[in-house]
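Practice problem 4.
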């Protein structure tokens, strides 16, 4: 069984900084949880009046969280490894943090804000020492940059810590807040809530804890009238999002991603990592036959196996992104469906692989009635953090639009008509911020217009890029075409709906209604929820239609997460595509038309619209009523504007 060790640091009174009220209480509460409820093997506690820390031999160590004490403890205790690779080491800090000269620092009790580099402790130094303990899993929980009102400095967490899961209390442009009514910082209060959850709503994995914090902390700040505070998590490598933090609280349903990680590690010949992952599965499910067989299989491998060349590749999960990369040549005429390249080039045809995944179906009340295993072919474009999973969509025919009988159906969704399409590839999820940045950095020179390498309102490398114009989305496709040597563009409206439906004909690809566990949408009532540019845009009316209920037809009332979510958070459709309903609107090539009376029937884009150059939007977003997120729902936007903040992104199509 894996061991869990931890360090908890809480600082209220500072020599040279404004005092805090509940940082020490937060650290104490987390220490008590680790020791009493989670059964940790060892917890070191640093606070102003904490008892001395016993040592293996010699005098006890002081527990005063001064710079010298903390640095000395980190240096001496972590000089040699004392844990196994499968163990976990947790580090919790509650107090002031500071971002100085592009580095993240924790402020000990005697830190000098005028001399941060010498008196504070760099987060990178903390992680470098912690990794020496021998445990492969180091978890940082940083409730820093705290104040009860206005303060200077930015939230820490911008530094990426190699080999570490870093959970930061606020985004780099925000601050963390204490809530007197709770006697806690908002982050730590939500953290303790999440760690205590059991059953299917548990936060036993990094990914589930991250989702809980990103929803719950803003909710608490809003309730207690604090400014916006958005926690975020950076896992390095990205596979650590699937790390089981607390095996005792995990369910068998939490093990799927971990199995894929374990199998992929075996495929790559990384048997040490694979064995650790299989043992983590056994910690949750002791009788798991697949895991026990894998352990035996790995034990039988010759010692030279670690050096074998990888000959096969299992599917990479959508949330697995690592570094930036790529280069290439050619161009695509903006707005064209299939444009002739400006220079002759050798088409770089990709090698395809097969991916397996579970598809969910629900009844009219949103209750899951079946789950089936499906497969899809595809390839990976770019590499590292920029990996874009491209899924092969088979050619075929379908009925586009919605029938008159579909609840909340709009006139622009008809008349229904038959469309026949050629095969194409489409990205399995909306383009992420990491992918956008990597493409812009790999091709920094504009083809038609300049691009911000880091746009978006909700910050997170694995979150969809958003708050971009249609013209900017087109430019990204042009640059990706140049880089890859393959033709990339936005999907046509027919391709988008065909890909979304994946052989279904109802309002949603998973059935006749929608539920909170299936997509990211506004299920609390009204047509639109949330803010834009600091002002509420909540309304019951959208495009002259009133939406009051947060449920669709006979389905359940939902929630509003008030943020985008990572691809892979919700089940895919039968083509293996994620987030076709909600999360962010997606641009299409087509010019807007008020109906389908005279549109192409071969899947090509409609170029003769009824509203000038307005372009089609599909899919709805996290802030829109479920009826607006249906497969057939259509909207439009001027190609030069970004729309409401945080709500419009893109998905790319490749024609090979």
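Answer key:
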């Amino acid at each position: 069984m894996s061991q869990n060790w931890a360090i908890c640091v809480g600082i209220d009174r500072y020599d040279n900084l404004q005092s805090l009220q509940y940082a020490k209480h937060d650290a104490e509460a987390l220490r008590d949880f680790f020791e009493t409820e989670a059964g940790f093997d060892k917890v070191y506690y640093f606070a102003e009046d904490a008892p001395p820390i016993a040592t293996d031999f010699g005098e006890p160590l002081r527990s005063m969280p001064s710079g010298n004490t903390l640095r000395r403890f980190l240096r001496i205790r972590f000089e040699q490894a004392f844990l196994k690779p499968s163990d976990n080491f947790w580090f919790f800090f509650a107090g002031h943090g500071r971002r100085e000269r592009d580095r993240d620092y924790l402020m000990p009790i005697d830190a000098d804000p005028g001399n941060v580099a010498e008196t504070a402790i760099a987060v990178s130094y903390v992680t470098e020492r912690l990794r020496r303990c021998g445990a492969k899993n180091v978890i940082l929980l940083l409730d820093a940059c705290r104040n009860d009102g206005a303060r200077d400095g930015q939230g820490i967490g911008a530094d990426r810590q190699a080999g570490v899961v870093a959970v930061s209390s606020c985004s780099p442009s925000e601050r963390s807040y204490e809530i007197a009514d709770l006697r806690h910082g908002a982050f730590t209060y939500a953290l303790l809530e999440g760690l205590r959850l059991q059953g299917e709503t548990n936060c036993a994995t990094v990914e589930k804890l991250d989702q809980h914090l990103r929803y719950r902390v803003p909710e608490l700040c809003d309730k207690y009238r604090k400014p916006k505070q958005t926690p975020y998590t950076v896992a390095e490598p990205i596979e650590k999002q699937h790390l089981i933090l607390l095996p005792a609280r995990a369910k068998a349903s939490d093990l799927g991603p971990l199995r894929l990680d374990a199998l992929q590690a075996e495929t790559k010949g990384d048997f040490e990592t694979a064995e650790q992952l299989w043992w983590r599965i056994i910690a949750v499910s002791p009788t798991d036959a697949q895991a026990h067989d894998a352990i035996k299989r790995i034990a039988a491998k010759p010692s030279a196996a670690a050096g074998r060349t990888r000959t096969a590749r299992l599917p990479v999960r959508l949330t697995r992104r690592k570094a930036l990369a790529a280069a290439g040549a050619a161009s695509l005429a903006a707005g064209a469906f299939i444009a002739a390249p400006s220079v002759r080039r050798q088409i770089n045809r990709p090698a395809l692989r097969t991916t397996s995944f579970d598809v969910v179906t629900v009844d009219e009340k949103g209750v899951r009635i079946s789950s089936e295993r499906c497969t899809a072919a595809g390839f990976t474009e770019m590499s590292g953090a920029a990996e874009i999973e491209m899924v092969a969509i088979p050619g075929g025919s379908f009925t586009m639009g919605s029938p008159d009988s579909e609840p909340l159906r709009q006139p622009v969704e008809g008349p229904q008509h038959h469309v026949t399409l050629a095969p194409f590839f489409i990205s399995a999820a909306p383009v992420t911020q990491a992918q956008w940045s990597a493409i812009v950095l790999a091709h920094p020179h504009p083809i038609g217009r300049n691009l911000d390498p880091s746009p978006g309102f909700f910050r997170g490398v694995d979150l969809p890029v958003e708050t971009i114009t249609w013209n900017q989305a087109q430019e990204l496709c042009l640059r990706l075409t140049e880089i890859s040597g393959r033709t990339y563009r936005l999907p046509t409206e027919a391709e988008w709906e065909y890909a979304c439906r994946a052989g279904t004909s109802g309002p949603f690809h998973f059935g006749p209604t929608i539920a909170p566990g299936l997509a990211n949408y506004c299920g609390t009532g009204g047509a639109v929820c949330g803010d834009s540019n600091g002002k509420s845009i909540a309304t019951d009316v959208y495009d002259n239609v009133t939406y009051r209920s947060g449920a669709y037809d006979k389905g359940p009332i939902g929630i509003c997460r008030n943020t985008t979510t990572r691809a892979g958070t919700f089940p895919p459709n039968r083509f293996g595509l994620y987030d076709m309903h909600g999360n962010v609107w997606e641009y299409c090539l087509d010019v807007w038309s008020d109906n389908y009376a005279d549109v192409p029937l071969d899947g090509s884009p409609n170029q003769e619209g009824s509203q000038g150059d307005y372009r089609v939007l599909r899919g709805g977003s996290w802030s829109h009523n479920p009826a607006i997120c249906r497969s057939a729902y259509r909207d439009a936007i001027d190609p030069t504007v970004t729309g409401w903040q945080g709500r419009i992104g893109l998905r790319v199509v490749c024609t090979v």
